[in-house]
Amino acid sequence: MKQVPNIAGLLLVAFFAAFPLVYTGANYDYVMHVLITGFFYAILASSWSMLAGYAGQFSFGHMAFMGIGAYGTALFCHYFYITEAPTGICTEFGFFGNWLVIKNAIGVTSTTLTQDCLQQAIAGWGDTVRVWRMPVLLGIVLGTLAGGFAGLLVGLLVLRLRAAYLALFTLGFSEIIKAIISAEIDITRGQAGMVLPALFENGVTVFGTEYSATDKVPPYYIMFALLLACLALLTWLSRSRFGLFVRALREDADAAAALGVNTTRYKVIVFTITTAMAAAAGAVQAHYVQIITPNMLFLLQMSLVVAMAVIGGVENFVAAAIGAIFLQIMLELLRTSFSIGGIEVDMTVWRLVFFGVLLMLVLRFARNGLIAPLIEYFGRAGVAEETIAKRKAGQEAQS
Predict the structure, then answer these.
(1) What is the pLDDT of residues 89-135, one digit of tens each?
(2) Are residues 262 and 173 in the same domain?
(3) Could you list the residue ranges that cross the membrane (predicted)?
(4) Does some domain include residue 390?
(5) Looking only at Cα atoms, what is the longest distance across the chain?
(6) Residue 145: helix, strand or coil by DSSP?
(7) 122, 112 in Cβ contact below 8 A?
(8) Among 31, 57, 112, 298, which residue's Cβ finds the most Cβ atoms within 10 Å?
(9) CA dihedral of residues 196, 198, 201, 207 (deg, nearest 10)
């Protein structure tokens, strides 16, 4: 019985790993998109679960750090290029025999060709000079580092305070980031959004099979692999000494401090790690959808991540991840409208009502979520009997 969660987990991983190779429905691209988005929310929900459920640090800024990761890679890929020759009009530096070119910020304009310094140079060069985009992988890495660094700064600034102040600060921080992105039109293009290159702009060949830049299979496996990597790291952390200290902070920070635990240090570490995970998910998702706008930072999105973690099980990051995937699928299935007595029910609106009702029922009757109790039930199966048997054996040995 104790191995049931492990076996179920392996079967679930095997199912998602094989799904793109065996599913042949006419709505293949749509289903794959739903699952990729589900994996994206699963990373956010599981990392937030580690922060709030394990460490007791309730943050409303998770989507802000996700946005920092997304805009970090977007700005890098949009403004930085490598050329064989200097443009003479852009900001540029010598770079291993080539030139590192930084485009000028022109914002939203209908005269891009005449104002974009690199486009002007390309128009003059024709096909005589090669121009390379920056590697997408490097952009993702930099976006992840940017999100983690922002998390470190926020953590150092406010994690000495109580949880309520952290929640209020991160809520304000999220709105500030959204306002800055919306206002800096010259750099971020504001509400017009920024276009990004695809994860594999020139396509990719895997085991002899060619996939185009718009194919769903490569981003599916990349997002799935990122989710598994995040869950593996969170599992390792939770089972280590670090996880023990983090749980001690959640239960009683004052008692943990009295026992010699550097409470601020561990709060900052867990905050930095989880925000870096959110930034990594945002960077990969940005290259998958290939366009980002400040709308991705709306508070409603943060509420959705919190609700997914709560319904799955906020004190178990695996349950939170499973809950996020399940709820993303259910929200898409609930888009189908139907008629009752000649009255058309528009589920594109009412599906969020059902979602809210489910959340309230879970908070009232299943405070540790719907999935976490099942994992705990099977994981603890036989523990009582085993404890009793050990006590009897000890008593018999003493007598």
Answers:
(1) 888 898 888 999 998 888 776 555 567 888 888 888 888 889 888 99
(2) yes
(3) 34-56, 63-82, 136-159, 166-185, 220-237, 268-288, 300-327, 348-366
(4) no
(5) 96
(6) helix
(7) no
(8) 57
(9) 160
